[in-house]
Amino acid sequence: MSDVADMALAGSGVGRIEWADRSMPVLRLIRERFAADRPLDGWRIAACMHVTTETANLIRTLQAGGAHVSLAASNPLSTQDDTAAALAVEYGASVFARSGVDRDGYYRHIHQALEIGPDLVLDDGCDLVNLLHLERTDLLGAVKGGCEETTTGVIRLHQMAREGALKFPMVAVNDTDTKHMFDNRYGTGQSTLDGIIRATNTLLAGKTIVIAGFGYCGRGLAERARGLGARVVVTEIDPVKALDAVLQGFAVEPMDDACRHGDVFITVTGNRDVIRGEHLAAMKDGAILANSGHFDVEIDVRALADLAVAVNPGVRPQADEYVLADGRRLVLLAEGRLVNLAAAEGHPAAVMDMSFADQALTCAWLAEAHAGLAAAVHDVPKEIDTEVARLKLASMAIGIDSLTPDQEEYLRSWRLGS
């Protein structure tokens, strides 16, 4: 059973999924391995993720390992209806996702995905795990573990663990090097600017771009915005990250100051109300507001609506213009949701190749190791991270050095000095 917009779109979805697959050689190798070893044979996996072509190739890989997978969308605006149809019709997954579904439909779809009675869960923002713990406690006993792939979701999981609320082990796939160093930095860095350019057709060279948050996503954005000729201003609450931004040559200011002269604002913090009413009231005419944090809470959209005397929806695709009392106009992209997935196509497949390889191998590891894991947040085993990097380098025909026996002995011994 599935709930998708149009099953007739399956043919075009297959073409797009196969196109993405060409840039995902690591996941393809893992799929071949899974098909031979069947590490997930008979396991039921419920996933709440962006329904994109790259995600489809992860689902195919889990299925090759023997899993039965149900999938709900983690963001209504990121769902690709043809991909959802292809997964349901051609690949045999249960898919509950429609582009632009409302809030009630969003949660209904997560409930439907959970009807599989999952052994494992894959989450993107912790909404599925949250729902399990608050409303579907009848299913908790069967869940052996799961994976979370976003900074926002990992923050929520750690809070659940601190309060003793988390009932099964969750692995923070987001925190592994081959995820956050590449997906967050290079994927978000490129795809966010792609979404802004598609939505506005603005020239970024010469603009002042204010980036709220200097984690891996913020660093990637800052690097690429500077490369396009923008003046980059960073806002931060963490003094270490702020210092890092300064030493990389970026201006650092409080949002109270940056809001007055920024041309484009991008939030990537994982927290709420990063851009508030007082900031919006001080912005210059034509300022562009975009969010690449997981949830639509980083820009206070309600405060923006309260300030506006008129709203011109859809002045461009995924761009709404809010007119203030003095005539100034602020442009909100993608309703304050993930601009890189709503206004563009998300991360390039070559980046998601590593993130989803981490997910697939971690699922196989959880199927074996879950009994010995506490109900807490766990790191991805280092050997999985290393294997994914090794496979990616091999797919790029890049070789690296290995330690000689003498070097290995030197690293093992504390007796050898200078």
TrEMBL record:
Record-listed E.C. numbers: 3.13.2.1
Gene, per the UniProt record: ahcY_2
UniProt key word NAD: yes
SMART domains recorded: AdoHcyase, AdoHcyase_NAD
One GO MF term: adenosylhomocysteinase activity
Location(s) in or outside the cell: Cytoplasm
Protein name listed in UniProt: Adenosylhomocysteinase
Signal peptide: none
